[in-house]
C-alpha cells in the first residue's frame, strides 16, 4: 500500500475557487460568535492511514492507485479535489471512530454516497478523507404495521423502490437518478417527480441516526408519525449536504402502493401553453403523481441516447402526466378529467398510456433526459425552483439567455412543482470562451430566478458550485444564522469543508 | 390607565416551578459555548408602557384591569404567570419594534395566539410582555395557481378551513381545537386527525416570515414546493413554541378539496382489539383520512357535554374512521375494503355514516372529547406518541396506572398515527393528594411511553409543564444542541423564557 499520492490537497477546486474566498471566517452579530476554521487541515500521515485501517479494516481504506480519481469528482465533473484516502465504513461505530479521530487530528472529512450529485457536494475540495457510505447498504427492516423502512445510508434508491414495491409499499420520493443513495437523497433533500403529490425527501423521513464530527451519535425522531418534542434537529440534518453530521441510519415513511397508474402524454404547440395548462389540470381537484414538461429537442436527445422511439414527437412541447389510484375506474376518471382540462387549455391531443410498456416508454425517456443532454458534452446545470405559476416565464427567458450568450440551453423538469432543470451546453465552444459564457448565462438565469421569487436549488443542493448564488439569494441574516448552526455541530469545520455556507 | 398591577412577575409558576431550576445556564461540550440568561429580566416601567403604546397605539396595549388575568394561563389552567402588559400588534413592523425594544430593555416576551395550549407554552411565567397575535388575523391571499394560502398568525384554524373549503381547497391539518390560531399550530407543530394521510403542520407549511428577538425580520421558504437551498431554518421555527422568534406570516400548502367523505363507526369488544385492527385496515392499501379510537366512557361524557346522542354506545370501544376521495364509487370501495378488514379483525359491526348529518354526529362528538373530559373537573394530559403498533400496550397500561395511583384515567386519540391523549382526572381528590398522585401517574405514563419507543409530545408541545419529561426523554447531547440553537436566535433569552429547553 503506497502513500505517494496522498499529499494532493493542493489540487483542489481548480474550476470554482473563484466563487469562494477561504480563510478563517467569523460570523458576528448578536448571539454566540461562531468561529469556523476553513483551512489549516492536516494532511494524512502514514500513521493516520494505519489508524483508519485499524478502525475499518485494511480492505476498507483506499489511499493510492487509479481508483482514487473516481472519488475526486461527482456526476457533473466540474468541481474536483483528490482525496488523500477513501474509507468505506460498515457500521455506525466505525463512522464514529473515523470522525472522532479526524476531529482530534483536524483532518477534513467529506461524506459521499454514489457520487451522483451535480454541485460538487461530495467532492473533497480540501483533500483529506472521503467517507463513502456505499458499504453501509442494508435494508434493516420493513415494518408493515408502522409503515416504515429502516435503512442504512448506502442503500440505492432503486434497490429501496424495488424491495418495498414487491411487498406492496411505496417509498414516495422519485428523483430521476435511481443509482443515488438514500443518504445522498436525505443530504440534498432530493425531490423528484412525485413531489407534487407526496412531497420531497424531508416529508418522507421519520427518523435519523446521525454521527457528529465529535463522534457523538444522535438518534432523532423514530417510527413516530408525529413529533412536537423540542426543536426538530432531524430537519436540520435533512438537506444539510453532509456539513453537519453523517447520516448512518434512516427511518423512512412507506405508503400503501397504489394499485393502478396511468400516464398521459400531452402535446402542445408551445412550451408556454403546456406550462399554462398546469393550473388548469390542478383545478380539476385531482392531484396527479407527476406533471413533467419537456421540449422536443430533449426528447430527440433521449431517443438517440436510449436508441428507442418516444411515442410521439410531432409537437414542439409536451406535458407528461401520471396519476395513481387503487382501481381502474378511479384512474380512468382522473385521466378523463385531466385530459379534458388539457384540451381546454389548448393541447393538440391527449395520448393515454395504459399498458406497462407504453408507460415505461414515456418514463424511461424522462429518466434519461439528463444523461442524454450530458452525453458526449460538457454541461452545467441550474436547478432553480420558482412558484409554479412563474415557470413559463423562466423557460421563455432561457431562450433570451441562449441568444445573448451564444450557448445552447435546454431545459426540462417538474411543471407540477416549479422546479426546473436548465442545462447550459458547451458543444464546441473553446475553453476560455466557454467559462466566460457559462458564467454569464448562469448569472442571468439565477438573477431571473430570484426576480421571479425563486430559490437557487429545488432539489440538487448547493454543494460547492452554487455557493455564490446562494449567498446572493438568501439574506445576510439567514446566512449568518446558518453559519452559526454549522459551528454548533461542527465547530472545527472538518466536515465537508467549503460546502453550502 | 393604571400601572398598579404591573409588578407581578413574582407570582409566576406557582404550580410547576418544582420541575425546573432557574439561573444562568451554561451549555458546554464541543463547539460554541452558549450562555442563556434565564433571569434578571426587567420589570415594565411606566416609560416602557408608554413606548409600547407609541409602537402599537394605546388601544393595543393592556396593562391593568381584570382582563389581564385571561392572559395568565392557557386552556389547561395548571401553569400560571400574570403578564405586566399584553400587546396586540397589527403589523410585522410593530412586532419587530416591540421585540427590538424588549431586547434593549431585557424584558421577557411571551408570544401567544388564542391560548388554547395545554402545556403552558403561552403563559408568561416570568411576567413581562405577552405578545398576542390575535389582531394579526388576515387571510392575505389564496393563490389558486400555486395552491397556497398566505395568512397572518392570528387567523383561527376554523376560519381558514371555512374560507378555503368554500373555494374548493383543503388545508389538511385538523387538530380538534378549531379556535386555535395558525401561529399556535405552527409553533406546536400541531398534528390532528388527518395526519395519517396528510401529515402534520410541518408538512403543510411552505414559507414563514419570522421576527427574531433582535427585531430582525427573516423570510424563509415561500410558495415553492421544493427547497434545497441551505439549512432549513424554517423547520427550526416550526414546533419551537415561540422560543426562537415570532411568526408573523405563513405560506400554507393547500390541496384540492376531496369531493366525498364517508365515515365508519366500528364497535369492538375491547380497546385492544380495536387498536390491533388498525394495521389490518392499513394493509388494505387504503390510507384513510383519519383513524381515531375512543372508549365508551369518553363517548358518554361527550353525549352529556353536547346534549346529543352518539349513533351507537353499546360496545366498550370504537374506531372512528373517515375516508375521502373524489367520487361516490371511490369512497364506497374504500369503505367496503376497510369494513371487511375491521370485521376480519373482530369488529362487532361496521356502521356507515354516509350523510352529512350522521358524519357530523360522529365527528362533533370526537371534537368534544377533551372539553367533555375537562368539563367541571381538573385534569392533566399526557400527549405521548409511540410507534403505531405499541398504542394498545400503552392504553392497557393506563388501566394499571389508574389502579396503582387511585386516579381516574381516560384516553382517546389518533389510532392511525400512534398519538394518544391520556387524561388524568381529579374528580374529588383533595389538593395535596391530587398533586402527589398526578405526579406519580404522569411519571409512570411517560416512563412507559419511553419504554415503548415513544416521545413526550406528539402534537401539543413541551411548553412549561412537560420540560421535565422532555429532559429525561431526549439524550443530553440533543438537549445541549437545542440550547445552543436557542442561543443563536435568542442570545439574551428574552423570548418565551422558561419554555422547552
From TrEMBL, chains A, B:
The keyword Flavoprotein belongs to this UniProt entry's keyword annotation? yes
Q: Known Pfam families for this protein?
A: FAD-oxidase_C, FAD_binding_4
- Alphabetically list the UniProt keywords: FAD, Flavoprotein, Oxidoreductase
* FAD-binding PCMH-type domain boundaries: 79-257
Q: Which cofactor does it need?
A: FAD
GO function terms (MF aspect): FAD binding; oxidoreductase activity
Instruction: Read off the PROSITE patterns from this record.
Output: FAD_PCMH
Q: Does the keyword Chloroplast apply?
A: no
This chain's protein is named FAD-binding protein
Q: What is the lineage of its organism?
A: Bacteria, Bacillati, Bacillota, Candidatus Fermentithermobacillia, Candidatus Fermentithermobacillales
Amino acid at each position: 500500500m503506497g502513500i505517494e499520492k496522498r499529499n494532493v490537497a493542493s489540487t483542489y477546486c481548480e474550476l470554482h475557487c473563484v466563487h469562494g474566498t477561504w480563510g478563517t471566517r467569523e460570523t458576528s452579530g448578536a448571539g454566540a460568535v461562531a468561529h469556523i476554521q476553513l483551512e489549516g487541515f492536516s494532511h494524512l500521515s502514514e500513521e493516520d492511514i494505519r489508524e483508519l485501517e485499524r478502525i475499518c479494516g485494511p480492505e476498507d481504506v483506499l489511499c493510492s492507485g487509479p481508483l482514487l480519481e473516481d472519488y475526486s469528482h461527482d456526476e457533473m465533473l466540474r468541481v474536483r479535489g483528490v482525496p488523500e484516502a477513501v474509507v468505506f465504513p460498515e457500521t455506525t461505530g466505525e463512522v464514529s471512530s473515523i470522525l472522532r479521530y479526524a476531529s482530534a487530528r483536524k483532518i477534513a472529512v467529506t461524506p459521499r454516497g454514489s457520487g451522483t450529485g451535480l454541485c460538487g457536494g461530495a467532492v473533497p475540495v480540501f483533500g483529506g478523507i472521503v467517507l463513502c457510505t456505499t458499504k453501509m447498504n442494508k435494508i434493516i427492516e420493513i415494518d408493515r404495521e408502522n409503515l416504515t423502512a429502516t435503512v442504512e445510508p448506502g442503500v440505492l434508491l432503486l434497490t429501496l423502490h424495488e424491495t418495498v414495491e414487491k411487498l406492496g409499499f411505496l417509498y414516495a420520493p422519485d428523483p430521476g437518478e435511481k443509482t443515488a443513495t438514500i443518504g445522498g437523497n436525505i443530504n440534498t433533500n432530493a425531490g423528484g417527480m412525485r413531489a407534487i403529490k407526496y412531497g420531497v425527501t424531508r416529508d418522507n423521513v421519520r427518523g435519523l441516526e446521525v454521527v457528529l464530527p465529535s463522534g457523538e451519535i444522535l438518534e432523532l425522531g423514530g417510527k413516530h408519525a408525529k413529533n412536537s418534542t423540542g426543536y426538530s434537529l432531524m430537519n436540520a440534518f435533512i438537506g444539510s449536504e453532509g456539513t453537519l453530521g453523517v447520516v448512518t441510519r434512516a427511518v423512512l415513511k412507506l405508503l400503501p402502493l397504489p394499485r393502478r397508474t396511468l400516464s398521459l402524454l400531452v402535446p402542445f404547440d408551445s412550451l408556454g401553453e403546456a406550462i399554462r395548462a398546469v393550473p388548469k389540470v390542478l383545478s380539476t381537484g385531482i392531484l396527479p403523481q407527476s406533471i413533467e414538461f419537456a421540449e422536443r429537442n430533449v426528447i430527440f436527445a433521449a431517443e438517440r441516447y436510449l436508441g428507442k422511439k418516444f411515442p410521439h414527437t410531432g409537437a414542439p412541447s409536451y406535458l407528461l402526466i401520471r396519476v395513481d389510484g387503487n382501481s381502474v375506474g378511479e384512474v380512468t376518471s382522473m385521466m378523463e378529467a385531466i385530459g379534458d382540462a388539457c384540451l381546454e387549455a389548448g393541447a393538440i391531443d391527449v395520448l393515454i398510456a395504459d399498458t406497462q410498456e407504453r408507460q415505461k416508454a414515456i418514463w424511461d425517456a424522462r429518466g434519461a433526459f439528463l444523461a442524454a443532454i450530458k452525453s458526449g458534452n460538457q454541461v452545467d446545470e441550474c436547478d432553480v425552483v420558482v412558484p409554479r405559476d412563474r415557470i413559463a416565464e423562466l423557460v421563455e427567458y432561457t431562450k433570451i439567455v441562449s441568444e445573448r450568450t451564444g450557448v445552447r440551453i435546454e431545459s426540462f423538469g417538474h411543471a407540477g412543482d416549479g422546479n426546473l432543470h436548465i442545462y447550459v451546453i458547451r458543444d464546441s465552444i473553446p475553453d476560455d470562451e466557454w467559462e466566460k459564457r457559462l458564467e454569464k448565462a448562469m448569472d442571468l438565469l439565477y438573477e431571473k430566478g430570484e426576480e421571479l421569487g425563486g430559490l437557487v436549488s429545488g432539489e440538487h443542493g448547493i454543494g460547492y458550485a452554487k455557493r455564490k448564488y446562494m449567498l446572493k439569494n438568501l439574506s445576510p441574516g439567514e446566512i449568518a444564522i446558518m453559519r452559526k448552526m454549522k459551528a454548533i455541530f461542527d465547530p472545527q469545520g472538518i466536515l465537508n469543508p467549503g460546502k453550502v455556507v
